[in-house]
Design a protein that fits this description.
By secondary structure, the protein is an alpha+beta fold. The chain has six helices and twelve strands. A six-stranded mixed β-sheet has the order 2-3-6-5-7-11. A three-stranded antiparallel β-sheet has the order 1-12-4, with no helix packed on it. A three-stranded antiparallel β-sheet has the order 8-10-9.
Length: 238
């Protein structure tokens, strides 16, 4: 079973899916050569996928668009009239590099304001399984710490409990000073700062590492020696 988000299902003319491993994508799907950047690409109606570098795809055509993930956060976005849509590959590097602001600026150039958007979060690694170092946190805090209150940092010293009962054991900590990073909360703070309210956002509780073996996880693959796998998160206009 793949995922759909009510916040997008309610928009006439939009089809979408957060897939599981092995799910067949729609025909003629367009995606970029992802490089953990803040780059946004307007989808081509003719070029094959995987040629143009970028980490978000933006379109008003009928060609479905996608991002590919295996722990990073996929975001699917639509205007409320379904005139423009976007798919975003939101790893920590892309979020740190401005991918959220860049995508919203593309909508703004088409006359679509932040309050007219609907955003669906797909499965990603959750803080129960996303171990990071103090140095990693220092890098984020130095440049983006002004975006969140002290009590709502997108990391914690205490390891959170999985949001869903795990089917796979979360990884053991590798160092005594580890912190636990919440990629979705990081994205949420950036969306809030850009003017998008909670009512416009649909969250996903599934952790790609521990919730299910049918979700791809780069970290789990490294820990357990699994075969390389990934999932598509795609959106299209009817």
């Amino acid at each position: 079973m793949s995922f759909q988000a009510p916040v997008l299902k309610q928009i006439p003319g939009i089809r979408h899916e957060f897939s599981r491993i092995g799910a067949a994508p729609p025909a003629n799907l367009f995606f970029c050569s992802q490089a953990h950047t803040g780059e946004v690409v307007e989808a081509s109606t003719t070029l094959p996928s995987g040629i143009i570098r970028g980490d978000a795809v933006f379109t008003r055509t009928g060609r479905p668009i996608a991002v590919i993930t295996a722990d990073c956060l996929p975001l699917l976005i639509s205007s409320d009239d379904a005139s423009w849509i976007a798919a975003v590959h939101a790893g920590w590097k892309g979020l740190h590099g401005g991918i959220i602001d860049n995508v919203l600026q593309h909508f703004a150039t088409k006359g679509i304001a932040a309050h007219q958007l609907h955003v669906a979060f797909g499965p990603s690694i959750k803080p129960c399984c996303y171990e990071v170092s103090p140095e990693f946190v220092d890098t984020l805090a130095a440049t983006q710490g002004h975006l969140w209150p002290q009590a709502q940092t997108p990391w914690s010293q205490e390891r959170p409990t999985p949001q869903r009962p795990p089917e796979i054991a979360p990884p053991s900590p590798t160092r005594p000073d580890s912190l636990w990073f919440d990629l979705s909360r990081h994205a949420l703070h950036l969306l809030h700062a850009a003017g998008i309210d909670d009512e416009q956002i649909e969250h996903c509780e599934h952790c790609t590492y521990c919730s299910s073996p049918t979700l791809a996880s780069y970290r789990r693959r490294g820990h357990r020696g699994e075969e390389k796998s990934f999932q598509y998160s795609w959106i299209g206009r009817a």
